[in-house]
Sequence to fold (187 residues):
Amino acid sequence: MKIIFIPDKSRLYEIRHQANALRMSSGVAGIVMLPLNTIAEFLQFRIHLFQPQEDSQNVAGAIDYPRRIMFINALGSINRQRFSIAHEFGHMLIHTEYQDEPSWVYDFRSPDPMRKKQPREQEADLFAAELLIPVELVKQQVMLFAGNLSSVANEFQVSMESLRYRLDFLNHEIVMQKEIFWIGFHQ
Ligand SMILES: [Zn+2]
Fold:
């Protein structure tokens, strides 16, 4: 099983807030299948799908800040591309220190998916999940489809893996909150 990355509470809420605020300000707050192009337009970025060459086959995505272009690897599923785009939005919004770097920022595909990622990468993944699969919407959709997760994943246009991880994450978060409450209760 994949290890669940949960940052400390204030950072988690900040990332969640940034993702929700981005949905709100770009006018796509309640939309289940998130129109990523609308968000890109709002941020005044162009999304360019590139056909990987030998030297770029391990690049999942890259951000060209000066020209405001996001490059996304055209190979792989639509779900994967969507997650990469949302991940890059995360870097733009929660890792603003990147933007002063004159060079491009690359995201490499890990040859080993079980390898532990850098905290910054984990944060961008979390942002992507918060943006694509917001807490309230996923609760609503799981209810609506009576727990049929493949239908829910289709509605969000995310992979089953992303959806399962998201639900594990949210369950984990609830358990952690209960523990915190429990400790508080006994003090
Ligand atoms: Zn990244």
